[in-house]
């Protein structure tokens, strides 16, 4: 099964061969190699890696090489322990109850809100809303803005956005008659700032951006993009799902109205996410869900909603998952040092260079500042075939459209392979992956 990978005007597709000179091989990165092989870096990585029990397993006799962190990260022991401790000793619903278990549960739950305020550098703890993930966070905002959007209003969406940052806005447009306009990409698969400025002349009501592309790892200058949007009066939302585990965040510096992310991509559990919003922006949202927890008083004549953050957190929340998220934040605050961030950046450079040196590999996107992700195809072979053959050697990568079908269409692809790294990834992982891909190449080509 084969798949064409021909570029379009909005595509940067590099086919690496052993003789390509425009994109150097690993030998052209001596400093990066030295960093990756330094004793200090190896010891630091080994200490971090030892905290992830899932990495200590064999798949069909091969040690697991996990390169799918962009889809979901593995979990450190402290996250598993925090959730187990809650269920074993403190399991009770939060808020209102008079007994001690509920008091302990509530204290642990609300402590994480305080952690997130500091982690994001938010102004108020009430600006932190717990959700079930990035998707719910964006849906909450898109639904909550329904009364503020009118027929003909323009909604701008990053053309490289995840489906979760496209479909909720399309549904909002259906309800209100608003108009969706994608922000095009330039030749390097980056958001085209010139075209963006032209679109902003339409005075959009909403601008939805991604901080880091989940498919390509491309980093957007979100502070600049938000500033330009705000100058035109737009409401701004930034999808930070792929940024939160790699970057140090400051929502005050970004200055967006809303910033969203998921726990499971930042070494926390599934089923929990965060919606940060400026207090006045959150306070203008109509609740997506209504019922218990979010009310002030209820009668059969009328219901009065409570204040933030409860007003946007209807029902029993994912208590254990929030507590696990708190442990993940502690883990990141301890382990995601500037040295570790530099190591991650060197790993991505090394991964790209090794893929180029392998030959017959198409790389997609911009390459000088990718975070966490490298997208590729092997010659014209179908991405799923490549992924299955890698899996047979213990290598876990993601294959498909990566919930970014409009981006794949602009690349003239049905899909691609994606190798993504995490805080636990090391040089040996990359070397094992390249060796496995070389064997796949020998088999298929």
UniProtKB/TrEMBL annotation:
Keywords: Pyridoxal phosphate, Transferase. The keyword Transferase applies. It catalyses: (sulfur carrier)-H + L-cysteine = (sulfur carrier)-SH + L-alanine. Residues 1-23 have a biased composition (Low complexity). Transmembrane segments: none annotated. Its EC number is 2.8.1.7. The keyword NAD does not apply. Its cofactor is pyridoxal 5'-phosphate. Pfam families: Aminotran_5. Residues 1-26 are annotated as: Disordered. Residues 66-433 form the Aminotransferase class V domain. One of its GO terms (molecular function) is cysteine desulfurase activity. SUPFAM superfamilies: PLP-dependent transferases. PROSITE patterns: AA_TRANSFER_CLASS_5. Catalyzes the removal of elemental sulfur and selenium atoms from L-cysteine, L-cystine, L-selenocysteine, and L-selenocystine to produce L-alanine. Belongs to the class-V pyridoxal-phosphate-dependent aminotransferase family. Csd subfamily. This is Cysteine desulfurase. It comes from Shewanella scandinavica.
């Amino acid at each position: 099964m084969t798949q064409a990978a021909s570029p379009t005007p909005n595509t940067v597709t590099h086919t690496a061969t052993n003789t390509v000179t425009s994109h150097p091989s690993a030998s052209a990165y001596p400093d990066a190699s030295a960093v990756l092989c330094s004793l200090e870096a190896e010891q630091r990585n080994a200490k971090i890696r030892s905290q992830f029990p899932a990495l200590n397993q064999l798949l069909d006799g091969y040690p697991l090489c996990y390169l799918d962190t962009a889809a979901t990260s593995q979990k450190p022991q402290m996250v598993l322990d925090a959730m187990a401790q809650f269920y074993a000793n403190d399991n009770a619903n939060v808020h209102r109850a008079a007994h001690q278990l509920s008091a302990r549960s509530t204290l642990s739950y609300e402590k994480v809100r305080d952690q997130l305020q500091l982690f994001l550098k938010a102004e108020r703890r009430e600006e932190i809303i717990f959700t079930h993930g990035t998707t719910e966070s964006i849906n909450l905002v898109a639904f909550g803005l329904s009364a503020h959007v009118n027929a003909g209003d323009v909604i701008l969406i990053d053309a490289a956005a995840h489906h979760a940052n496209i479909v909720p806005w399309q549904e909002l447009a259906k309800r209100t008659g608003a108009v969706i306009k994608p922000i095009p990409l330039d030749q390097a698969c980056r958001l085209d700032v010139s075209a963006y400025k032209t679109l902003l002349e339409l005075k959009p009501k909403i601008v939805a951006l991604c901080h880091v592309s989940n498919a390509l790892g491309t980093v957007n200058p979100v502070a600049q993009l938000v500033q330009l949007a705000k100058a035109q009066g737009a409401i701004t939302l930034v999808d930070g799902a792929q940024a939160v585990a790699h970057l140090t965040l400051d929502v005050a510096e970004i200055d967006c109205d809303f910033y969203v992310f998921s726990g499971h991509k930042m070494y926390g559990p599934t089923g929990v996410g965060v919606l940060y919003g400026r207090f006045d922006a959150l306070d203008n949202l109509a609740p997506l869900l209504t019922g218990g927890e979010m009310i002030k008083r209820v009668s059969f004549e009328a219901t009065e909603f409570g204040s933030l953050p409860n007003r946007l957190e209807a029902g029993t929340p994912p208590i254990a998952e929030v507590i696990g998220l708190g442990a993940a934040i502690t883990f990141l605050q301890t382990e995601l040092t500037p040295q570790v961030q530099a190591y991650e950046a060197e790993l991505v450079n090394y991964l790209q260079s090794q893929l180029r040196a392998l030959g017959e590999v198409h790389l997609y996107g911009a390459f000088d500042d990718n975070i966490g992700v490298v997208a590729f195809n092997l010659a014209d072979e179908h991405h799923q075939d490549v992924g299955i053959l890698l899996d047979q050697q213990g290598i876990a990568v993601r294959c498909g459209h990566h919930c970014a079908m409009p981006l794949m269409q602009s690349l003239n692809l049905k899909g691609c392979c994606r190798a993504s790294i995490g805080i636990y990834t090391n040089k040996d992982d990359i070397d094992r992956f390249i060796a496995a891909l070389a064997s796949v190449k020998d088999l298929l080509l």
